[in-house]
Amino acid sequence: MSESTIKDVARTAHVSIGTASMALNGKPGVNEDTRQRVLEAARILNYKPNRYARFLTGKKTNVVGLIVTDITNPFFGNMIDVIQEELGHHGYDIVLGISRGSISEEKRIIQKFIDLHVDGVIAVPSHNPTPDTFHYQKLQNLNIPICFITSYYPNIEAPCVMTDLSDGAYQLTKYLLENGHHRIAYLVGNRSVPVSNLRVEGYLSAYRSLGISHQSSWIVADEVTFQGGYSATEHVLSQFRPDAILTVNDFMAMGVLKCLKERHIKVPQDISVAGYDDLLYASVLETPLTTVHQPIKQICQRTVSTMLNLLSDANTPVEKVLLKPKLVIRESSCPH
């Protein structure tokens, strides 16, 4: 069954299409009896306004596109939930795209968002070493505002909301170094991605601040997933025996824990393990996970606030917002 149109509503209410449109949009010039008749007809017909038609008349669609990289990671599930709720408070819906870290998929999603005439785009950038960001430039050329969340593209001038990843990595590494863990393996994502470099800089800064030497081979790049954590740990163990293993997210740390358990390596007695994000399950694992808390609700609220400002004022200043991370010490780490 095809969707009802405004023409169907007008016919049912015995008014012109123009009068039906005015009544549905709350415009003056329609008497109350007629307005109620039109609204009742729309209810009976389950009429939904055509967002495309609203776009053509220069009106907002009240839809914001949201891109995340990995729906299997609970961190992004939490992000979607909070952003949808926060935007909903202001009358906006979201349309979701999952890039899986692929630039080509990100381009396809952006084009779909353009076709749907979204009012704005909130995006977690793909982890790609040489990203072609023309699709984001296309959004800007169409005056569709962009706000990045948890990461960013250096060549796209758009606001970004994230935690201070360098400081978070510094806090975690320094804590382990001060507790006698000098051989710390750090499992990161693609080293060409800006956020990976921020994390690595924090890790290295902790070594420098305490005057402890390290080896570059202790930094291992892999997919920032459960499987990536597992395979990177296999690689580390084949090369050397670390005192501790750090990861860039809790999901990756779970892969580390699985790999160590299969090899009968005890955590934290043999090797300490730490993640990043402080997801809900981090505190309820068999060995509760030492991690760094990312205030995901605050990140999302600030992102939505920024997007709403961009939607109401195109001249809103572009700024990178860095929120403070917090070290959370649990049973997966102990003095060495």
UniProtKB/TrEMBL annotation:
Keywords, in A-Z order: DNA-binding, Transcription, Transcription regulation
CDD domains attached to this UniProt entry: HTH_LacI, PBP1_LacI_sugar_binding-like
SMART domains registered for this protein in UniProt: HTH_LACI (SM00354)
Superkingdom: Bacteria
Cited PROSITE patterns: HTH_LACI_1, HTH_LACI_2
Pfam families on file: LacI, Peripla_BP_3
Gene3D superfamilies for the chain: 3.40.50.2300, lambda repressor-like DNA-binding domains (1.10.260.40)
Domain HTH lacI-type: 4-58
SUPFAM superfamilies per the UniProt record, alphabetical: lambda repressor-like DNA-binding domains, Periplasmic binding protein-like I
Entry's Gene Ontology molecular function annotations: DNA-binding transcription factor activity; transcription cis-regulatory region binding
InterPro entries: HTH_LacI, LacI/GalR-like_sensor, Lambda_DNA-bd_dom_sf, Peripla_BP_I
Protein name: LacI family DNA-binding transcriptional regulator
Native species: Massiliimalia timonensis
